[in-house]
Amino acid sequence: MKFTRLASAVVLATTSLPILAASYTVTELPARELSENQYASSIDNTGLVLTTFQNNYNPPIDLRLIDLDSDFFAAALTDIDAVRNGDPNLSDYNFLTNYVRTGSSNFSVLTQQLGQFLGYKYVNDSFEYIKAFDEESDELGGFSFSMETTLRDSTNGTHIIGNTEGPNRIIEYTNENGDVLTYNVFDFDRRGFVQVGDTTVGLVPADTTLGGSSLVNSINQNYVVAGVGSVAPSDALVLANANCLDEETRGDQPVEVCQARLRTSTSSTGAVSRRSGLWTERATLWSLDVEGNIIDTTVYGTLVTDEEEIANAGTSQALDVNVNGVAVGVASLKIGEDQLFSTAAAIFQNGVVTRMIEDDDLLPNSALHINDNNFVTGVRSERINNVSRSRMYVYNLSTDDIDFVDGFFVSSSTLPRAMNNENIIVGSADVDVVTGTTQRPTAGFMYDIESQTFTNLNDLLPCGTDYNIIEALDINDSNVIMASASTKRPVRNVRGEILTDDDGNEVLTDTVVAVMLNPTGAEPSDCSADEDTLERQGASTGVLMFAMLFVASIFRRRK
Fold this sequence. Notes:
It contains eight helices and 36 strands. It has 559 residues and is mainly beta. The strands form ten sheets. A five-stranded mixed beta sheet has the order 1-29-28-27-26, with no helix packed on it. The protein starts with a strand and ends in an 8-residue tail after the last helix.
């Protein structure tokens, strides 16, 4: 392996830029009246755009799961008769929405569920809900919007993949005291899916104990999906599930309720984080046909080969796959005389998992994206000034060269979000701005592998723009970029109505919006004399930290 470390050239607006770092126009997706925040997800080569909405306005309220005769609601609601008639006033509607969302965040089986994050596609200047396993009902007058759904990728404008939860269903149970209780349960907690038209196919894992767990990250143009799936339940899950199936140990509750509660905790080991620790998981590739049906599934192991018990060999995950069927990701391995576990970038191909970077000094590391030219980009974790930082690298599978990129400055955490076949990487990185907090603000970047130039996307926008690009999520082969930007927007209530102060002025707040960046072919304007540019580059992300937390799990590439 040939190893070099590059102090990448951070391109300034006044310098001569490569042709791919030309000016960009900004187009905000018109979703401000639909949800509190919108986050860019992906754009494929047909121009199909995927987004995620946070806290949709006008959510449905399921009165079947609200006991309006109870003292609690009698005291909390101002016009209970209007609520019964499905026409609550704003105060009561706001209370009921907060009540349901609180129950959802606590994984309650006694309340209605509302997904905080929902997936949409943007086509023909309008948004279309990606329903996954959601269903319409007469009681709600449409979809339930009950399942958290995050979209990951699409290809050919037809196949959309993402991750969601099992559909909720209401069951009634008469307990030992003769009381009739209404529960809201689901049959699995995390499931990757592909949606083709109105047809949804679940990408089922190898082990489906208690529904199992699967997660998808990328799909190539040959309909091969890269992700991870459960291959075996933990001992704690097996024991707890057996207790649920046994009438004597289950207690006075339905089997479905007992199992639903297991997906958030296990009684034998104490609290377990949701969606983790219940199964052993392995990198998985699902091959689909043009209709989205599964025609083949390949499960990969890890880089640990000396363990007989599957649970002792660590985990692996495929994060991206190119047109040649070469997938990359991460896998557990053991290092040193003490055989300590670490995580290494891995290649998954033809049923075999291999280590990509044979250098223990560079551990831990991971491979996030691969393009059709066999370039791989990923990160290694470094501790700088006692703080863990992500250092981006570019690896050439054809020559075994690896280059490390410093980003905006040496200790800048730099996270590549996507890479296209023009060898352009986009993502988010710390900007060197003192904010008085431990969390640095971020900016979206573009990195040109061939010219080795690292560009702040905000430097490519028109002078005086109202948008601050905090992260770039995807780039297609036409170099059109999907990004998340912070801007000021009016505060709205739960119905989407704009709020004003006592003088009738709109109340503005920091908001995250999904934007499309279109290249113009022209060189960027010189904004050096524009004071707004400095403010834009140095803006604190503050309340926008979710944008980084949310997309940290979105590992993508563009075909």
